[in-house]
Amino acid sequence: MNDRDEMSFFFRQTYADGRDGLCGGVLYHGERDGFGSGSGPVFAVTLEKTEGYSIHT
User: Computed from CA positions of residues 14, 36, 41, 29, in that sequence, does the dihedral angle turn out positive or negative?
Assistant: First the structure.
């Protein structure tokens, strides 16, 4: 499953018995999303202005 940004992706760990483990995403923040301000296309917030990839779990 991907978010709305072509530079980001979602991941989910699934155990052999079907339970979900760690879930999260590697998101690219930069000018396109207000440097992590929570605006589109990523809609995720960083505590400091960010340019580059960030892990969100």
Answer: negative
